[in-house]
């Protein structure tokens, strides 16, 4: 048993029972070991959850980084969609990720920020847009995953349209991008206010 095996089994357990029911006792039983054996790899459950969150983000964390010449708007949208898809890959993926610290991803984050700034996005706006879009995406996925686990509410009244989660995400994403675009100019040009 190694750290990677423990994390992989913990993520499989998450998919089966949900975040509320993931426990070190259950995980140890699943692995066929005594519960204290897990503490060799993870001192606390919080450490285990952080490793699970990092591993769950692997599809997004290995997505191609932007390259010089890429359109920053297209990249911003693609990056946000990749983040959403990755959160949706795991049951309670947004809850697992919420509040985690991207310690293993700092170099990638810096490269993304450098790309935006080099593309003409003012640094402060780039930082705030990335943060706002991240939190918006997590919130959207939290709601979507909570609705998937909720009991069927029955038929909605005729005057209440059914929510299309992807369409709602895309509409909000377009609004964030539009706001960011209002504060951005081409490289070398003055910044619009």
Which features does this protein show?
193 residues; mainly alpha; Arc Repressor Mutant, subunit A; Tetracycline Repressor, domain 2; 2 domains; disordered C terminus
Sum this structure up briefly:
It is built from 10 helices and no strands. It is mainly alpha-helical. It has 2 domains: about 5-55, Homeodomain-like (Arc Repressor Mutant, subunit A), CATH 1.10.10.60; about 60-180, Tetracycline Repressor, domain 2 (Orthogonal Bundle), CATH 1.10.357.10.
Secondary structure elements and pairings:
Layout: H1 3-17, H2 24-31, H3 35-38, H4 45-56, H5 58-61, H6 72-88, H7 93-97, H8 106-118, H9 123-149, H10 165-182
Helix pairs in contact: 1-2, 1-4, 6-9, 6-10, 8-9, 9-10
Q: Percent helix among the residues? A: 55-70%
Number of domains: 2
Global outline: flat
Q: Superfamily at the CATH H level of the largest domain?
A: Tetracycline Repressor, domain 2
Low-pLDDT parts are 187-193
Question: Helices and strands: which structural class?
Answer: mainly alpha
| Chain-averaged pLDDT | 88
For the sheet with most strands, the description reads:
none
CATH architecture of the largest domain: Orthogonal Bundle
Which band does the percent of strand residues land in? under 5%
List how many beta strands DSSP finds: 0
The third-level CATH topology of the largest domain is Tetracycline Repressor, domain 2
Order of helices and strands: HHHHHHHHHH
